[in-house]
């Protein structure tokens, strides 16, 4: 909870005037910084992952809004992608909390996120197209996490192996990523089979199952 309050305070440091930013600054305490020992390239890659998670969250939020439109009316898909957006945002917060714990998040929070955030699309042809796009998004996220793990296991001849970061990413993130990818692939296959069997009404039936947590 304290982190949330702190994060909201940091957001308040930005000016609402377009293109103009104010900087929130405080006098730093005279603390020995030797305990801050993350390799710079690992820190940079982890910050980039924050950006990627937030972009994925915004993409899923766009999907949720798309399927909630009165002309589409697929409440099951809307609910599913809304929950997916929440999960990606939580991942970004976990990464920020980790960087804060290691003492190396940033001295300038304007550099933590780059705006505008990238969203893959704002409309999708149907539910199958959205699930396929979501799976591609998750694969991109997983691939980037694996690249961070590989790099921070061997960041260079003059740098140390960051065992803690590598273990944390492997245990807390990769397991969930692979399970999420399998879930999306399964949903996509099930939907395709239902549409092959029942035609356009297959998506309607799948949406009902999705809404009730039956698939």
UniProtKB/TrEMBL annotation:
EC numbers for this chain: 1.16.3.1
GO molecular function: ferric iron binding; ferrous iron binding; ferroxidase activity
Subcellular location: Golgi apparatus; Secreted
Membrane-spanning ranges: none
Signal sequence range: 1-22
Keyword terms: Disulfide bond, Golgi apparatus, Iron, Iron storage, Metal-binding, Oxidoreductase, Secreted, Signal
Keyword Signal appears in the UniProt entry: yes
Record GO biological process: intracellular iron ion homeostasis; iron ion transport
Lineage: superkingdom: Eukaryota
Any one of the GO CC terms: Golgi apparatus
A Pfam family assignment: Ferritin
Keyword check for Cell cycle: no
Chain ranges of the Ferritin-like diiron domain: 36-195
Catalytic reaction list: 4 Fe(2+) + O2 + 4 H(+) = 4 Fe(3+) + 2 H2O
Protein residues bound to Fe cation: 53, 88, 91, 138, 177
EC top class, as a word: oxidoreductase
Its biological purpose: Stores iron in a soluble, non-toxic, readily available form. Important for iron homeostasis. Iron is taken up in the ferrous form and deposited as ferric hydroxides after oxidation.
Family (UniProt): Belongs to the ferritin family.
Subunit structure: Oligomer of 12 light (L) chains and 12 heavy (H) chains; L and H chains are disulfide-linked. The functional molecule forms a roughly spherical shell with a diameter of 12 nm and contains a central cavity into which the insoluble ferric iron core is deposited.
UniProt name for this protein: Ferritin
UniProt source species: Neodiprion lecontei
The organism's taxonomic lineage, starting at the top: Eukaryota, Metazoa, Ecdysozoa, Arthropoda, Hexapoda
